[in-house]
Design goal:
This protein has 460 residues and is mainly beta. Helix content is 4%, strand content 35%.
């Protein structure tokens, strides 16, 4: 056989004409069997480096029982077929080798109470994928777990079992909700693809570890990530586009997910969605801790209808602060999440108690706020009983300075800024821009002595 040949990555060879038909028949039967689950050819790992892994050729290893001791799933034993839900108990470690392939059946998942280490290499990635047409459930952790994924593709999970897609995720990281965020999840060059619910969910104390980087979530049917506000500062660099809703969801359920530690919302290439539907608060504050929420330049926060940003208080004392300082080139945007936004979609930013001097809002744009905040009037109401609709409401105490500067407030359903304190005025008009504000650009505070002017000044 002196004829030349061409080698393909599947090790297919073009043979001379006399043997070509036999070769096609043999190759076709192999590919037909393998394609029932997925493309058997090697794939590029999340960083795009060509893989040195070879496709599994054997029947694989079936897993129907939870590990009773430390266990390793090898590349040679691939594909690893998970046919029933497995639990990795506390004190036990399941290790998945580089180049290993794991196929999980529909409605099945992995519960990690101990450790799951699936740490591939740039040229030796790990694949965790569906074994059949039905999506598998999730890789789910509990308090004390240790989840490490590196150079791993997680595909075809997130089966919501008929529930709401934002209640489930292909990776569901939970810790102890009564503690500060716990760095349970190391995600290093991980791709989460084609989830039938959220790509990654971090709640109840679950958080990313500081070494996490280059996370990609793509092809999901809803948001790429849901993360509690307390853990939002652990969100790593990555790519979060190519999903049905390209926003990071902060649920704003109030209470357990309040920001109680210093937290930074970093610019990650997509907006943050604050809440889903209905009234609620994205709250900053904890008695004794005095957390600071820092929002980086270029960040956009899109508030669900009726959801507010609350800087909280205890009695008359502020117990938190917000530092939202954009730049002229990269302003911070606070706006409505409605498809057709309108005045008053969300209440706005409420700063309670005597404001912490760390409060700063600068080079920002606040749009479509001024919905009902539920705050009784602490200012001179211009003939109205309440003045609780505004883009920014300061109530309960006089700030040290006009901490809102170089900011545009537009399309407010009520006022621009409510100066809801008793004492001398502080002017917020000098450096800010007000457009399409329904009532006063800024309201008038109650005098320490005497009564409110009638009518109270209401600049437009």
């Amino acid at each position: 056989m002196s004829a030349p040949f061409i080698a393909f990555r599947e090790n297919v060879t073009i043979w001379p004409t006399t043997m070509l038909l036999v070769r096609k028949l043999l190759l076709g039967s192999v590919l037909l069997a393998a394609s029932a689950c997925s493309d058997p050819s090697p794939v590029r790992p999340p960083n795009g480096v060509a893989t040195t892994c070879t496709a599994p050729t054997g029947s694989g290893t079936v897993h129907t029982a939870s590990p009773v001791a430390d266990e390793t799933w090898t590349a040679a034993g691939s594909p690893h077929l998970v046919q029933t839900s497995l639990s990795i108990a506390a004190g036990r470690t399941l290790t998945i080798e580089p180049c290993a392939v794991v196929k999980i059946y529909g409605g099945v998942g992995l519960l990690v109470q101990g450790a799951l280490h699936a740490e591939g290499l740039a040229d030796q990635p790990i694949r965790i994928e569906r074994a059949e047409a039905t999506a598998w459930n999730s890789i789910e952790t509990r308090a004390g777990a240790d989840l490490r994924l590196a150079y791993t593709t997680v595909e075809g999970g997130g089966n919501s079992n008929g529930g709401r897609p934002t209640q489930f995720g292909a990776i569901d990281v939970r810790g102890n909700q009564d503690l500060a965020p716990q760095p349970i999840f190391i995600a290093d060059h991980v791709t989460v693809k084609g989830s039938q619910s959220l790509g990654v969910m971090l709640r109840e104390g679950g958080a990313f570890a500081p070494s996490s980087q280059a996370l990609t979530v793509i092809g999901g049917v809803t948001f790429p990530i849901l993360i509690w506000g307390r853990a939002a500062g652990t969100l790593p660099t990555g790519t979060y586009t190519g999903n049905a809703v390209d926003e990071v969801l902060l649920p704003a359920i109030g209470g357990r997910d309040d920001i109680k530690e210093n937290t930074t919302l970093s610019e990650r290439g997509v907006p943050y969605r604050i809440g889903e539907t209905g009234a609620g608060s994205f709250t900053v504050g904890d008695k004794g801790a005095l957390p600071l929420l820092t929002i980086e330049p270029g960040v956009t926060l899109r508030f669900a209808k009726g959801v507010r940003l609350l800087v909280s208080k205890d009695g008359n004392s502020a117990i938190g602060a917000i530092h939202a300082e954009g730049t002229a080139d990269k302003p911070i945007v606070f706006t409505s999440a409605e498809g057709s936004p309108a005045r008053g979609d969300w209440p706005g930013i409420l700063v309670a108690g005597t404001p912490d001097p760390r409060n700063t809002i600068a080079y920002a744009k606040i749009s479509y706020a001024g919905g009902l905040s539920g705050i009784s009037s602490f200012d001179c109401p211009s003939g109205m009983t309440f003045a609780d609709e505004a883009a920014v409401i300061i109530y309960g105490g006089k700030p040290a300075t006009a901490f809102v500067n170089n900011t545009t407030i537009d399309n407010s359903g009520g006022d621009g800024i409510v100066r809801g304190w008793t004492g001398e005025p502080i002017d917020f008009l000098a450096t800010n821009t007000f457009t399409k504000v329904a009532r006063c650009n800024q309201t008038f505070p109650k005098p320490s002595v005497g009564v409110c002017p009638n009518p109270a000044p209401c600049p437009k």
